[in-house]
Input
Amino acid sequence: MGEIESRLPSQNPRPFQRSRGWLAVAGSLSAWLRHEVAALDPACFALVMATGIVSNSLFLEGYPVASNVLLALNLGAYPWLCLLTGWRAARFGRALRGDLFNPRMVFSFFTFVAATDVLGLALDLRGFTTFALSLWSLAIIAWFALIYLGFGVLLLRNNQDGADVANGAWLNGIVGTQSLVLLGSHAVPAESLGPSAAMLIYALWMLGLALYGVYAVLLSHRAFFFDLKAADVTPILWVVMGAAAISANAGATLAAGNSYLPFLHSIQPFVGGVTLALWGWATWWIPLLLLLGIWKHLILRTPITYTPVLWSIVFPLGMYAVTSLRVSRLAGVPSLETWAWTITWIALAAWAATWAALGVASLRSLRAGVALAES
Output
């Protein structure tokens, strides 16, 4: 009798144990995801910026298949990051507000503006102008809110030991501003909006130049009169080059387009001259940034670990490639097209390496979260 009872299914604990195991795993995954959302970096949209600009560069260079693959990734990544950001605002509002009112962090939110515009440019290149215009409208609303919030935080909450100008994060505001110029000059129907649209786009470009001038003075003062430490040399310093490149890209777009106003047409030589100066300035930065990286990682032997700011290397490289291509066509210098092609593939390699680093870091974080939950 006892042997028969031992064979009854109701006495077998394995299905129940397996059920408990799956519930434990699901609980661990949920806890890990909540932790990641709570600590979500405001600069997370730099992933979309980097992927989008490399996709756009490949499209302009004549590689539509590779470009479309990256665009497909972006079409998934952009709404996913928007969802996570919305979740963070609803569930972890205090952490989000802490970043918004932190002088070191607030300008990282401009990555959302630039990512929205870069995605809009990709759609506009493929003829989806209505969607591109919708994204531009969303980006300019976000830009208007962030630009005054950012400078309000600097004016009212910053102190001597607050925001560190050498880290380059402030330049995200300039990148966001110039991205509005790029998408606006392509997607905004100037024929129907008339002179107002042209004036707005040119004014935004000039504003970006003014902000870059302010930052250049502060950066020069910080670099020349204070000790430069390894901690100051971060990937986001590449945004110094990227901000110059996107400003030159926007200028080349304006110089090649129709100004629609005699007044704006009269300043086209100025636009062209400033565009060339900005492209030269961006080019000058590349060897210096490489030398700083060699000093930090090869001489001081500081290890390279994944953080979202690694995308701040990929985006400037991709933007510089697109800018070089536009400048070459504007100036009629074919040799620059070969240079742009070379930088495009370097940017693609950097993008692939950063994606791989993201995958490894995510897997390690997930394993650590599951192990902590099970302990």
Confidence is low (pLDDT under 50) at residues 1-8. The domain at 42-365 is CATH 1.50.10.150 (Glycosyltransferase). The chain has one domain: 42-365.
